[in-house]
Design brief:
single chain; alpha+beta; Alpha-Beta Plaits; 5-stranded antiparallel β-sheet; 4-stranded antiparallel β-sheet; elongated
């Protein structure tokens, strides 16, 4: 079966245990989560989960429906790369001595639009934001120069390319239904 990288965007109320409920759906289907990012959304008391995983469309559709059935989940949708805009942020901790002795390291950082944000005698910190493949490319370059001490990536964050905000529409409809029945 064809495996595609899908991005799920899930909105839920900000309650303990929701993340566990969501990840259990992936575990039951034996799907490996490639990246996971959880943060506050633009709507008060609503959290946004951005999860990427490889799957076929039938399986990801089922997973999305199962997640959306969870009581605290407001909405769950899946997208391919063509339907969303994604970014990541990464920090690279590199050996300052190697940075100073090898000009190709600072050249690679500039070429990949990284920013040196901290320098001390022991280590330097480089920050990079961009497309996931760009973040990974700088990682590979620094690894080649044998200067990398630590690396961490934020995981994918994403916004849809759609002109409509489906969650806002959903919440407006829910509020209207509530007003009509109460």
């Amino acid at each position: 079966m064809q495996q595609t990288l899908y991005t799920l965007i899930i909105f839920s109320e900000n309650l303990a245990g929701v993340l566990n409920q969501i990840t259990n759906v992936f575990t039951r289907r034996q799907l490996n989560i490639e990246s996971l990012n959880v943060s506050a959304s633009g709507i008060e008391k609503v959290h946004r989960y951005t999860i990427t995983c490889y799957s076929d469309e039938a399986t990801i559709r089922t997973v999305t429906k199962q997640i959306e059935k969870k009581i605290d989940v407001l909405q769950a949708q899946y997208f391919t790369g063509k339907e969303i805009f994604v970014m990541e942020q990464a920090l690279y901790k590199i050996a300052t001595a190697k940075l100073l002795e090898n000009k190709n390291i600072s050249k690679a950082i500039r070429l990949h639009e990284g920013k040196i944000v901290e320098v001390n005698p022991t280590y330097s910190i480089v920050c990079k934001e961009g497309m996931p493949e760009e973040v990974l490319e700088l990682y590979r370059k620094l690894k080649q120069h044998d200067c990398l001490l630590q690396y961490v990536s934020s995981g994918t964050i994403a916004v849809t390319k759609s002109h409509r905000e489906r969650l806002s529409e959903f919440l407006e409809l829910r509020e209207e239904e509530y007003r009509l029945t109460h």
